[in-house]
Amino acid sequence: MSSQDNDQDFRVVAAVLFATILLAIGLALGIGIHKTRSGAAPAAVVSVPVVEAETTATAVSADDASVVVEKGVVKFYFASGKAELASGALDALGEAIAAAKGGKRLVLSGFHDATGDPTMNAELAKQRALSVRDALVGAGVAESSLELKKPEQMMDNTGSNAEARRVEVVIAE
């Protein structure tokens, strides 16, 4: 009988040891992933001046976040794969914020380029529009004053991909 007791004890010890090793490996992997994610530098907000432009071709850089006010429309351009606003966003939105607080409605339209996965691009365009919405709400604009349009893909070949990665804010008439 004692040999059977030893076999059973051995199995229990082996199971506990195996579980402990798996737990230690899982913990090490979890800490490693956490450090990798938290150790990465946070996405920086690019400091760029707000540009009052007649043409966006000169104002939009290939892969920088920027803000352009063109004929009353505030256009936020985003770096490829990013949804962070350029600094100066609230300055560019001054007129739109005042209009919304005065009872006007603001329409936010997100656009994306045709490169890559269309579903992921549409989601990124949505996240960019939500970033602009969050900035407006943070500036005191009521969410009920904001209308978010479904993201659109730029189909025409008249502009660059950098011009397609944008969100426009228009004061509704």
List the helices and strands and how they pair.
Blueprint: H1 2-39, E1 51-52, E2 66-70, E3 73-77, H2 89-92, H3 94-101, E4 106-112, H4 118-138, E5 146-148, E6 152-153, H5 161-164, E7 166-171
Parallel strand pairs: 1-2, 4-5, 4-6
Antiparallel strand pairs: 2-3, 3-7, 4-7
CATH class of the largest domain: Alpha Beta
* Average pLDDT level: 77
Overall shape: it is: elongated
Q: Separation of termini? A: 91 Å
Query: Helical amount among residues, as a percent range?
Result: 40-55%
Number of helices: 5
CATH superfamily of the largest domain: OmpA-like domain
Number of strands: 7
CATH names the topology of the largest domain as 60s Ribosomal Protein L30, Chain: A
Structural class: alpha/beta
Give the count of structural domains. 2
Largest sheet: 7 strands, mixed
What sequence of helices (H) and strands (E) makes up the elements?
HEEEHHEHEEHE
Gyration radius, in Å: 26 Å
- Unreliable runs: 39-59
Q: Which band does the percent of strand residues land in? A: 15-25%
Q: Mind telling me which CATH architecture of the largest domain this is?
A: 2-Layer Sandwich
